[in-house]
Amino acid sequence: MSRHGTSPGFDTDVLVVGAGPTGLALGTALAREGRRVVVVDKEERTRDTSRAVVVHARTLEVLDWLGVAARLVDLGIRVRRFTVRDRDRVLMPIMFDRVPSAYPYALMVPQHVTEAVLTDRLAASGVEVLRPWELASVTQDDDGVLARCTAGRTIRASFVVGCDGMHSTVREEAGIALEGGKYAEEFVLADIKVSGGVPRSQAVLYLSPAGLLFVAPLPAGLHRVVGSASDAPGAIDRDFVQHLLDARGPRRDRARVERVDRSSRFHIHHRLAARYHQGRLVVAGDAAHVHSPAGGQGMNVGIVDAAALAAVLDAILDGAPLGLLDEYEAARRPVARQVIALTDRLTRLAVVDPRLRTTRNALIGAAAHVPIIPRRLARRLSGVVYRDTLATETTPVGGPVR
Ligand SMILES: Cc1cc2nc3c(=O)[nH]c(=O)nc-3n(C[C@H](O)[C@H](O)[C@H](O)COP(=O)(O)OP(=O)(O)OC[C@H]3O[C@@H](n4cnc5c(N)ncnc54)[C@H](O)[C@@H]3O)c2cc1C
Q: Which of 175, 305, 323, 367 is deepest in the core (most CB within 10 A)?
């Protein structure tokens, strides 16, 4: 239901393009404020491809504000400890249980589950995602935006927000550049059933001489593995994942791969939108920033973007000046820049030249003895260090979601 401030003749206050985690969180946050919101997605149904698996403490605080954290926590695995290892040797423990938050852990839960929980919450607010509705083009004037979707559908909205991923149509229509590049390395990802060797209570980044391998527990007795691989076969099968674990994972207690449920190969980008809005066209989530999955940050930053943006849009729809969108950009773009820089350092460290790997590991082991280093890393990865980026004088989000 519309609260107030809606222009006559408008179909909606905000058109959210894309029903990934960012768009779903934004739709939910706006509906929570009583705003009229339409969410469209070009896909017929939500994707169940395995992508993000980590929901960090700060994101859970925001999801709590949206009313979904408790349900999500019930569906995931709480990981309180993350270790960097060279085979069996722990180089650096990173303790999430010391992060100052009501959620002192990283929650391991597949992205499609997070999306399903947010979709249910959105539906409970009376908003169903329109599928398959693909945004084709937009025209904006001083009062609003006319959005044209395929099959001749149009929507008139006060604002259009592109939560439509890295290849964002909204960003392109707004003429906003996405600056950055792509890493040369190829990575593989697999969700596997494995016995022995790898823990169920913690996530591990193996930085072994033969290469990197990230292993983390997932619900339903599965594990997520991600590794760099230039020699991966077309289909990532059990033998290949076993080979990665044997060459890079635990040595004392061998991990045995029983089956591979899902797998993919991917390249990593590091890109940042030059601006976060152009008039009444706004971008959030992967439409605004893309980075390495090192540290599991992408989806998390997008969800927090959504909460910050919802507060700003709500204030503008209440009569605040359009220029308030600059505050959204000023608050959230530097966070994305920092996350890109951090994940870039982690990625480069992980894929460093093989001749430097022994030295790298010795340095990480030494750094672990300086307590502030793992402590700072835990706070940064958890996102709690960015809390103040929502606490502008004009946005209420800094308050309720702390
Ligand atoms: C292999 C891999 C592993 C990852 N691991 C992690 C991790 O551990 N932790 C983490 O936080 N992140 C991780 N990420 C990143 C994470 O998946 C993304 O950051 C996240 O999906 C971004 O969410 P989003 O809603 O912004 O965009 P998306 O999830 O890309 O959603 C965009 C939506 O927009 C829709 N759309 C696109 N164009 C249009 C259009 N023109 N009209 C209508 N709809 C449109 C699409 O169908 C899609 O549903 C990983 C990514 C990959 C690829």
A: 305
- Ligand 1 centre and the CA of 20: distance in Å? 6
In the reported structure, the alpha carbon of residue 113 is separated from the centroid of ligand 1 by a whole-number distance in angstroms of 13
| pLDDT over threshold 80, residue 389 | no
3-state secondary structure of 135: strand
Going from the N-terminus, what domains does the chain have, and what CATH number goes with each? 12-76+110-180+270-354+390-398 (3.50.50.60)
The pTM is what? Answer: 0.94
Strand order in the sheet with 222-228: 89-95, 81-86, 202-208, 211-218, 222-228, 178-195, 256-273, 289-290
Quickly list DSSP for 243-293: HHHHHHS-SSS--EEEEEEEEEEEEEEEEEES-SEETTEEE-GGGTEE--S
Around ligand 1, the residues with Cβ closer than 6 Å are: 17-23, 40-43, 51-54, 111, 134-135, 163-165, 169, 189, 266, 285-286, 293, 296-300, 302
CA-angle at 272, arms to 344 and 44, nearest 5°? 105
Q: Six-digit token pair at 310?
A: 């919802």
286 C-alpha vs ligand 1 centroid, how far in Å?
A: 6
Give me ligand 1 centre to Cα 18, in Å. 9
* % of the chain surpassing 90 pLDDT: 86
Task: Compute CA distances 234 → 47, 80, 157, 237, 243, whole Å.
Answer: 21, 35, 44, 9, 15
Q: Report how far residue 298's alpha carbon sits from residue 301's, in angstroms, rounded to the nearest whole number.
A: 5
Q: What does the buried/exposed string (b/e) look like for 51-79 if buried means 16 or more CB atoms within 10 Å of the residue's CB? A: bbbbbbbbbbbbbbbbebbebbbeebbbb
Reported as a pLDDT band with limits 50, 70 and 90, residue 29 is very high
- Reported confidence tier of residue 263, pLDDT bands at 50, 70, 90: very high
Q: 287 CA to middle of ligand 1, Å? A: 9
Total count of residues recorded for the chain: 402
Strands 81-86 and 145-149, bridge-based pairing: unpaired
**Residues 40, 52, 185, 290: is their CA dihedral positive or negative?**
positive
pLDDT in tens, 285-298: 999 999 988 888 99
Question: Which ligand 1 atom is at minimum distance from the Cα of 164?
Answer: 34
- For a substitution probing ligand 1, which of 58, 111, 130, 161 has the most ligand atoms within 8 Å of its CB? 111
